[in-house]
Amino acid sequence: MTRYTSDQNRSVSQAIRTTPFGDTLLIGAGPAAIHVAVQLSRGWSSKLGLLNREGPHAARLLHDLEKSQQCVSSRVHGEEYQHLEGTVRLHRFYAGYTSLEVDGSWKTIIICTPCDSYRDVIRQLQLERLPFVHTIVLLSPSFGSNLLVTSELPLVRSIDVISLSTYFAATKFDSASMTTSYTKAMKKKIYAASNQSSSWSIEPLQRFISGLGIQCDIVSNPLEAESRSITMYVHPPLFINEFSLDQILSHEPSKKSMYKLYPEGPITSQVIHVMVELWREISRFLISCGSKPINLLQFMNDDNYPVREENLSRYEIEHFVELEPIHQEYLLYIRYSSLLIDPFSSTDEQGKYFDFSAVPYKQVYQDECGRWLIPRIPFEDYKRLKVLSRMAELMDVNMPQTLQLIQLFEQRLQQFMAEKGASAIHPDMFNDRAMEEADVIYRAWECAT
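Structure (tokenized):
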């Protein structure tokens, strides 16, 4: 029988209690953060904290947390995911960055906010007052987010910044409370990469995600991981076109659907042509960055949602990159036509399948002060295109289709703002720093390479 000294006993006890991520602070208090917090509570983190910027959301959540005794809960759709449901009591909730304790014990930070706020998040955290932080996870980054965040870190610190290709679930608030999230679907596969060649956290993160039933592949660099988000290829052509913008920028309720064929939705042969051209431009750009481009059809089918082999053969999927552009467009049109209904659903009593493509447009809306806002689809997609376009310009990569999409959105945005009047537009609509951030990302990329 092995005997230990008192010091050794303490070391062994501490080792037993050690969790892969240690004390973990989640930034952002939306449904994704709550879902992730509950999953981390199963032996992955020691203490859990939640921080949200000051404002009405933080105030409402603080009120709900007081009623729930600091507990948050996660509900998940589907019998196969029932083991992921649960409740956890938060160690701390911070309503604003100024309330964040100095010299806190937080070791891991998971940023669950929209990617266009990452730079502000890092600046407001003031990492010099969080000396133990060694890992930052970007839950839902955009292309270049890792380089942007890394550029804001203290030079004297070697912090492991990990990008996921996308958030690994589709989650919203439960209708009953802001302390409960409801996850309606889980991704099949995501990608991850670190800014450190010898990352100490990426393998535990991979195990954590795999434990949720999601395949997590580690790729060579963050840009490669960040380029493996389906929205990067699909959202701009589907939602930055005259048909979709007519729906999105109208305050009259739309009866159209985001993923249907014209005239019920935006999908036409021209939209599919733009999708293929955009993919080809992004692929050329990724190669110039030293990253591996994707097989678009295989990525759609294998990593996102498949269709039946009667619609698309395995050969066509795997050899998509080698085909002529018109053949590629044909196959993508078949893919979207095959997903008008859920091809793997069961028929109802009338023999009908689930109407998979009947997803309503999110339209412009007004805040509590009556100021107009444009939904993240496609405003966030537009800003991502601007970053890509600017970086491509700096790297002498020609991306004319990307530029056309940017110009169309800007034209329609200016028309909308002129119609409503500048004073009636929310300030966030004028807070577009995409070009500035693209320059920062490019300089960081040059330094890293």
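The chain has a mean pLDDT of 93. Residues 11 and 366 are 56 Å apart (CA to CA).
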